Amino acid sequence: MSNQTPNGKKRIGAWILSGSILLLVSTSSCYYDKAEILYPQTICDTAAVAYSTAVTPILSSSCNSCHGGSIPSAGIKLDTYTGVKQQVDNGRLWGAVSHAASYSPMPKNGNKLSSCNLDKIRIWIAAGAPNN
Ligand code: HEC
């Protein structure tokens, strides 16, 4: 019995060691998987948000299939600056994309925009929605 106790401790020690190695390995793979959460600045660049480079791409990929062209949905035209600015000024653009109560949630029948894209739109609107 007196010999088994130190062995038992060694075994526990080995278990703890292999356990922490396992934990390390699984934790480091988590870091790679969730880079956008760990390094939001490098993935979601909101430092220089401009209409032409940040906002227009979001609208053309998520909105303008319905809100572009000659017969835009609900008469809301989002493929021209004038049309977009109008919806910014009346509060509907932010209300719709942020899924605020009493606005029709946009994109219609689609997933809510990513938080990165919402940040870009919010920052651009807060800057006065310039045509830059
Ligand atoms: C599948 C077509 C479709 C897409 C995609 C779409 N919309 Fe709409 N949108 C509509 C329709 C139709 C309406 C009229 C209201 C309704 O039917 O819900 C509307 C209404 C709106 C309104 C007015 C909301 C209100 O409550 O007054 C805004 C602003 C708007 N859309 C912005 C957007 C933006 C921004 C996007 C992209 C992020 C987008 N829409 C994507 C079809 C679409």
List cofactors, ions and other ligands. heme C
Integer count of domains: 2
Note the main sheet: none
- SSE string, helices as H and strands as E: HHHHHHHH
Shape descriptor? elongated
Low-confidence stretches: none
Number of strands: 0
The span between the termini is 80 Å
Q: What does the average pLDDT come to?
A: 84
- Judged by helices, strands and strand pairing, the structural class is mainly alpha
Helix content: 55-70%
In DSSP terms (H or I, runs of 4 or more residues), the helix count works out at 8
Strand content: under 5%
Describe this structure in words.
This protein has about 130 residues and is mainly α. The chain folds into two domains: about 5-35; about 40-125, no CATH class. About 60% of the residues lie in helices and about 0% in strands. The chain is built from eight helices and no strands. The protein is elongated. The termini are far apart. It binds heme C. The site of heme C has 22 residues, from α5 and α7.
